[in-house]
Amino acid sequence: MKSKKRIVLAYSGGLDTSIILKWLQENYKAEVICYTADIGQEIDKKKIISNAKKLGVKNIVIKDLKDIFIKDYVFPMLRGHAVYEGVYLLGTSIARPLIAKDQIKVAKKYKAYAVSHGSTGKGNDQVRFELGYHYFGPKIKIIAPWRIWKLKSRTDLINYAKKNKISIPKDKKGAPPFSVDDNLFHTSTEGKVLENPKNSAPELIFQRTVSPEKAPNKPTFVSINFRNGDPIGVNGKKLNPAKLLEKLNQLAGKNGIGRVDLVENRFLGIKSRGVYETPGGTLLIHAHRAVESVTLDKETMHKKENIMSRYAELIYNGYWYSKERFKLQKIVDLKKNKVNGTVKLKLYKGNITIISRQTKSSAYSLKKVSFEENKTFNKSNVEKFINFHKKKLRS
Fold first, then answer.
1. How far is residue 294 from each of residues 15, 211, 338, 343, 361, measured CA to CA in Å?
2. Range with the lowest mean pLDDT among 19-28, 167-176, 342-351, 376-385?
3. Kind of pairing between the strands at 179-182 and 341-348
């Protein structure tokens, strides 16, 4: 007897992916294996397992990838100071490559012929997932239901769920809910009133930050310790990557730090408005820039700055595993071994102030910058320097 074909579905346990699960079973006559990557999102493992089993799933894989996510994806990105279109810290973008890689790993383990995801046909995530799938499993088939099924609206989904006795959360009846994506690094919220850029974001959508107005009236001080370009501790206490970010999320969130309201240009050419919360990440990018300012030479810093926009765009577009991104990462990490020290920040009502930078690096010379007379810096060479550049004005 021929064995049944298998499909590995990226599964959250919610309404949409439960509908996709049933639809795959009906249309592909295949065994569906449910795969969930725990990267620090709000997750109910019992609910995921229960909902999958109700639909006859035997194999449910839930992987804890939090430390890998922060150490191997978020930290390298932060070393590059990647910011898309000036404001977006790429919290969703950086998560998809890891999920795609691990999903393919599971597919190979179970000898599945296909993988599937729940990304919509208008969004960026379908590109990010599928470029990752292709990189690690080019021969594995990709099934993207939102691009091929006949369900066109939220009403269609609700009716399909009722027909197949799939539980429907109360907030998903009637008007579509906000679309929320979260992980340890950030939370993004889109849809409903946010779709019209003239509408202000309602306070109820914010999940991990208080409003600056409601933040404490006294500042919070925090020190972040860096070694080889990565954060390794908070206030002198060494923490693993996930715990470190959890701590910074809590400190920044209660001080109203990390909110961004933006209209971004999607890879597919559509403009989209969303509200993002990246509290701990916002602290880290400020602190990392501060520690680099006293540990790296001008040429290295400016090389990094010149590639940042392109580096960020590659991540946004799903090219984390591209040759170009790998090449740029080498520039980003060229002298990361010199980036060591401690940065102290003051957090107050949505604002971050750098209080101090401490390092044993010799890149910053007190003798050279001092206003007191010293023999370290030869001022007689300055006139020659200026004369050289006068000639270049007309060259």
1. 50, 33, 10, 10, 7
2. 167-176
3. unpaired
pLDDT tens-place string over residues 208-238: 999 999 999 999 999 999 999 999 999 999 9
Whether the full predicted model's pTM is greater than 0.85, yes or no, is yes
Q: Evaluate if residue 381 carries a pLDDT over 50.
A: yes
Q: Is 333 a catalytic residue?
A: no
Q: How far apart are CA 102 and CA 137, in angstroms?
A: 11
**CB-based contact 228:337 (threshold 8 Å):** yes
Instruction: Select the CATH number that applies to the domain covering 186-296+335-358 from these four: 3.30.230.10, 3.30.479.30, 3.90.1260.10, 3.90.650.10.
Output: 3.90.1260.10
Specify the CATH architecture of the domain 6-74+95-175. Answer: 3-Layer(aba) Sandwich (3.40)
The single-letter DSSP state of residue 202 is P
Asked if 181 is an active-site residue, the reply is no
Catalytic residue (one of 102, 125, 181, 230): 125
The strand pair at 237-238 and 259-265 is best described as unpaired
pLDDT value at residue 374: 59
38, 72, 179, 227: which is the annotated catalytic residue? Answer: 179
Active-site annotation holder among 12, 18, 79, 96: 96
- Catalytic residue list contains 16: yes
What is the mean predicted confidence (pLDDT) over 195-203? Answer: 96
Catalytic residue among 6, 12, 16, 272: 16
Catalytic residue at 6? Answer: no
